[in-house]
Every structure is written in C-alpha cells, then in structure tokens.
Design a protein that fits this description.
single chain, TIM Barrel, Rossmann fold, Immunoglobulin-like, 6-stranded mixed sheet, 5-stranded parallel sheet, globular
C-alpha cells in the first residue's frame, strides 16, 4: 500500500456514508447553514471564499469541530490574475512565449493562495473556432498543438511547489469537453461533432493537461455525443479516467448536474444525481443534488457505493497532494505583503508587451516626432475594459489608461471620448473631428468593452459596436494619420476598420498595465512581437474559418459568390518594427522512422536597424492517409530574439509522433508516406520542403 495514501484509506474506513457524500459537495456561499454542515462533515469544498480570515474560519470549524477533521478545499476562478490583472488568456496566447505564460500563471496563484485559495478553476483549454462565443477570451485560440503546449505550461505553473513542498494550487482543466464547439457560438449550447473531430481537435489540450498532472477536471455544460458533458460516461469514464489514466477528480460546472434535467436526461433531482455519479462526476458544484439524494440512493442501490468510494478517494487524494491535512491554514498577513508586488506588476507589463499584435502599419509606427496627438475613442481613458472578463477581484483604480500613460509620457495631446462604447445614440463625432483637425495624428481607441466577452456574452455580429465605425469614418475624412488601438476579447470582422486605419494595433484586454504597454510600443521602446492565435474574419458569413481546415474534392473551386474565402488576418500573423528574412532551411535527413525525430534548422535574418522577436512557426501536411488530413498543421514553434543587422539559426527537433493521426478506428498511427513541411512567419507563408517517414529496416 502506498504510504502517501495510508491516511486516506484509514479515514475512509471510518467515514459514514453521509460523511463520504459530504466530501463530494461544494458550496458557492458560506453562511450559518454551511457552518452546521461543516461540523457534520457534509461539505468538502467552497468557492467564492475570497479572504484568508474566512478561509481560516472554515478550516478551524472542520479541523476542530468536525468528527474526522478533514480540511476543506477552497477554489476560485483565477483566470488571468487574482488582484494583479494580466492580459486575458487569449491575449497571453498571442505572445507564444511559454516561459512568460508560466511566469504569469505562477504569480497569479501565488497571489491567490495568499487569500486562502488552493484550487484554481483554470486553465480553460477549450479549442474555439467561432469568435461569436464569448468564452473564446478565456482560451488559447483555434490550434490544438499550441493549445496543448499552453495547457501544459499553465498546469505546470499552477502546481509548482510552495514553501511546504506541495503544489501552490490544484489546477482544473476545463470545460471537458467540446465546449468551445457550441453551435452558433451560443454559450451552453449543443456541440455536434464527430468522435474523430472530438478526439483530434478538442481532446489534445485536455490530454496534455492530464499528462502534465492536472489534479482536477471540470465537466462541461454542453451536449456532446448526444449527452451533456456532466452526464457522459463515455467521455468521463472511458476516455478521461480510462484511456488518459486521469487519477484526480472531476467537478461539475456551476449547477450543471441539476441543469441536466432541462436536457432531458431525467425529470427529477434524485435521478439526475445518479446519472452524474454513474457518468463520473466526483464533486457537485453548488446544485446540492448530491447532498440531498446520494445517501438515500446508495442505501437503495448498493452498487453505487463503489462509485462513491472512488470519488471520495480521488477528492481526498488531491487534498493530501496539496498538503491540506498538515497545512490547512493561511497566514492572514501574507496577502498584504504579496498582492501586486513589484514582480507581479513587472510581469503584467512584460506580458502586455508581448501579447499585443500589430496588424497594420503604413509607416506610421513607431512615433518618432508625433507632434500634437488627438487621443480619441471610448477606451482612451477607460479603466475597466483593460481588465477584461473574470476580473472580479481587481479594481479599476489600479489600471493605467492610455490617457494616464500619455500624461506620464509628457506627450502633447488633446482628448475626447467621441462616442459611447455600445450606444449608437451617444456620440460627439463633430467635437472629435474638430480635435483631429487641430492635431497632427489621431490615436483612436476602439473595440468592445469587457462585458461583451466572457461567459454567456456571445455576439451575433462581430463589427465595432455602437457609433464607433461612424466615428472612425469621420476622423478618416480629415486626412490625418490614424493609429487604431483595438480593444477586444475575440477576433472581429472589421475590414472597414483596417482600410481606414494607417496603423492597427490589437491590444485585446491587456490588463492593469494597459496604458504603459501601449505607449511603450507606440513610441518604439518595445517592438511588437505578438501573433494571432485565432483567425480574423472579413465577415461572420465565413464562420467557421480556421487555418487547419481540410481540402474538398474540388479545392480550386471553394469560394463564395459574393466574396473571396480568405481571412482578414490569418492564424500566426503579426507584424514587427523589424524585418525578418527566412533562408537556408535544412533537414538532417530526408526520411525518418516512426521512432525517430526530424531535425531541421533555418536562418532568420533581421536586416533592419531594430532588435526584434520573431515567432518561427513550423507547419506540415500529410499528403496521403487513411483519413482526410488538414491542409496545414502546426507542429513546432519558437520565439527568438534577432538583433538588428544580424542572423540567428533556429533548430527544431520534432518527434515523428507529431505527424501521426487517428485512423478510422480511432487508433493512433504513424504511417509511412510523404509530407510537406513549411517554416515561416505565419500559417500562410514560409519556405517549403519535403520529407518522408519509412518503416524500420
């Protein structure tokens, strides 16, 4: 018997059925009723407990007044920071900087754990290809390989060790599974897809999180393979706990067990509790149906008791892994010393620097002698939108707006809002035009406010809301150069904005150091280096549009009658103040076996006078297979610094398994055959070569 779990086995031998079920219960509030349940051992977890004093009170009750003294696991959504706010996850992914992503993730949970939080409902690893869906802001974009690498980075950082030698927090990979594929981009909706698509596109980041040792998973709201994610034994037990060997526990999403009743899997809470348990959900988040019904169900149906025991063992094992039995309390003075410390503020600035994506630049940026600037737009002095969704603990007073940063920089400028962010009737276009006419340059802050993205904030149209386009058109008529700053939690369909802007910088929702990061890039102190992880469309009629699509039988004729089918900006795209030239692509060998790696090298030259970071991307295509394959798939990348007027050689070692696929029987195979390989700056450009995989011998 593993000594690590001896305490758990002893506890379980002493636990009553009610106490076991109690460990499977999470509450979203802490009031007098919950205090009594704690004493009775009937609560295993809380969320929305956000201060160390309350967390310690909860732990004292259970450690001193309950029979078995089992600590409570306190969780929260620390999606892109707790008090210190970093860019939204979609923006962080655009940095393609795994080391920096790991750094902000670790600092986020160091801060959160000072408030008593030991379980983070993150990372969200849902692949999303429909920007209408509001929760695209919380993920890493459209690509399974990149999403998998970022999932590993975040899990690794969240669960890095604290001063007691235990994970800082338990990571929670969510929302398992297919949630990013909801129909129409409508949150909580059905995700209708083949099992092959499920396993090829949506499963890899979850498999990566499990492989990295994520201690918990969260089941999803959506219908997937004809059953809700919270009531699907095939995805939860067969795939996750079986094929992937996941040893942690699964928590439902908020109320999602009870919400399976409208799905039609049962018509009452008692039956739906049994559905969720049999499916593989170990903990009930807030709906209360486990607490109310599992004890009596188990007495009537003894075959449910092993399922309850398995769930409780998993939950207690995570608590043991976190060291909660030996270290249940939090130093109540720690938060004051940790919150928004200099390292966290610096990391927030550096991540914002690397997350911003320059989409257009007609020789306007960087600003050398800007003269008098007209700073215009609904987000020019906004302290809330830069925080983004899931910033409930943050305060706008800690955010630096663009106007704040302009003042700090000592720039000569005038300021006007110009129009409201969403209300088309609230506009002062004439006043804004007058400012522009009296200036040398317009810096225009447009986009969508934070409350238009995130959970259940979906959009049917992906244009600029309100009177923003009208404002831009009027300013463009002045003939003054326009630098547009695009605040957004998703990719947008804004071809008119691109055409009317002389420069376009996508700043996303960049966090608390918003203004400073933007000014650093505008003035040229920082060279933009972010690249897109989600395709920008020309119109919503192109949805779904993503780079790693498949060919048709007539690939030369795939088009619309009324427009082309090309994206506005492709996956992997982003400009720099530097110029990069790719040359001398060389493979170590033209052919490898399934057990070998493909080694390649390429030279990246920066002939410009500006140091710059380039994200070198490697794509491949399997030319012939037993199933249809995408036209391109990302298989490697590296972000490298290339000094001005210099060349660096970038080397990659790519294992052959990255070129494998699932055959029609869902078996993973690495087949002999020919492949095309591209190395370049985005998914549409690059130097091409060919290689092959052959059998050993």
């Amino acid at each position: 018997m593993n000594e690590k779990y001896e305490r758990i086995r002893r506890l379980m031998a002493e636990m009553t059925l009610d106490e076991k079920v109690g460990q499977m219960v999470q509450f979203g509030r802490y009031k007098n009723k919950e205090k009594q349940l704690l004493k009775e051992g009937k609560i295993g977890s809380f969320l929305n407990v956000l201060d160390a004093k309350t967390a310690n009170e909860i732990q004292r009750i259970t450690m001193e007044e309950s029979r078995l003294k089992i600590p409570v696991l306190i969780g929260h959504d620390v999606i892109h920071g707790h008090i210190t706010m970093y860019p939204i996850p979609l923006a962080e992914a655009c940095s393609w900087n795994l080391g920096l992503i790991e750094r902000t993730a670790r600092l986020s949970v160091i801060e959160a754990s000072a408030y008593g939080i030991r379980w983070n409902f993150s990372p969200m690893v849902d692949i999303a290809r429909d920007p209408r869906w509001g929760r695209i802001a919380e993920g890493s974009g459209e690509d399974p390989f990149l999403g998998s690498q970022i999932a590993k980075s975040r899990v690794r950082s969240y669960q890095s060790l604290n001063e007691n030698g235990h994970p800082i927090v338990a990571a929670c990979a969510k929302h398992y599974i297919g949630y990013g594929g909801v129909e129409g981009g409508r949150d909580y909706n059905t995700s209708d897809m083949s099992e092959h698509s499920l396993r090829t596109t949506y499963l890899p980041p979850f498999a990566a999180a499990a492989d990295e040792g994520a201690l918990t998973f969260m089941s999803s709201f959506n219908d997937i393979l004809a059953q809700p994610g919270t009531g699907n034994p095939y995805t939860l037990r067969t795939i996750l706990k079986g094929e992937l060997g996941f040893k942690g526990f699964v928590v439902s999403d908020w109320g999602s067990i009870e919400e399976m009743i409208p799905h039609g899997l049962a018509d009452n809470e008692r039956d739906i509790a049994e559905v969720a348990l049999r499916a593989g959900v170990d903990m009930d988040m807030h709906s209360g149906v486990y607490l109310d019904h599992l004890p009596s169900l188990a007495k009537e149906k003894p075959e449910l008791i092993p399922l309850i025991d398995d769930a409780v063992f998993r939950i207690l094992s995570v608590k043991e892994e976190l060291g909660l039995f030996d270290h249940p309390y939090t130093d109540e003075e720690l938060a004051e010393n940790v919150t928004m410390n200099p390292e966290m503020r610096q990391a927030a600035l550096e991540m914002a620097h690397e997350s911003l994506v320059l989409l257009k630049n007609d020789r306007v940026l960087p600003l050398k002698n800007p003269g008098k600037i007209a700073l215009i737009g609904p987000f020019a002095d906004d302290h809330h939108t830069p925080i983004g969704s899931w910033g409930r603990q943050a305060s706008a007073k800690w955010v630096t707006s663009i106007k704040d940063a302009f003042l700090q920089e000592g720039l000569r400028f005038t300021h006007h809002k110009g129009c409201d962010a969403i209300d088309p009737e609230k506009k002062q276009v004439d006043e804004a035009v007058a400012l522009a006419n009296d200036s040398d340059l317009v810096v225009l802050a447009l986009g969508e406010p934070f409350f238009l993205s995130g959970e259940n904030n979906n959009r049917a149209f992906l244009n600029l809301p309100g009177a923003q386009l009208e404002l831009l058109e009027a300013l463009a008529s002045t003939g003054k150069p326009i630098v547009t700053l695009l605040f957004t939690g998703r990719s947008l369909a804004i071809p008119e904005t691109v055409a009317l802007s002389d420069a376009l910088l996508c700043v996303w929702h960049p966090g608390m150091r918003c203004g400073e990061a933007i000014v650093d890039i505008l003035m040229g102190r920082v060279n933009p280096s972010g690249k897109l992880v989600t395709t920008f469309l020309k119109t919503i009629g192109q949805i779904p549009l993503y780079y790693n699509h498949k060919n048709t039988g007539r690939p030369l004729f795939k088009k619309y009658n009324d427009m082309d089918d090309e994206p506005l900006f492709p996956f992997g795209f982003g400009l720099s103040y530097s110029t990069f030239t790719y040359s001398n692509l060389k493979l170590s060998t033209p052919s490898i076996t399934p057990n070998e790696s493909l080694n390649l090298r390429i030279d990246i030259e920066n002939p410009s006078d500006v140091d710059g970071k380039e994200i070198v991307q490697v794509y491949y295509r399997d030319l012939v297979a037993r199933v249809t394959r995408p036209v391109k798939e990302l298989c490697a990348f590296e972000k490298v610094l290339v000094k001005a007027r210099s060349t660096v050689t970038v080397e990659f070692e790519i294992p052959a398994k990255r070129f494998g696929y699932l055959d029609p029987k869902m078996d993973f195979v690495i087949e002999p055959g020919k492949f095309t390989l591209w190395v370049g700056p985005d998914s549409t450009q690059g130097i091409a070569t060919e290689f092959s995989i052959h059998e050993k011998g």
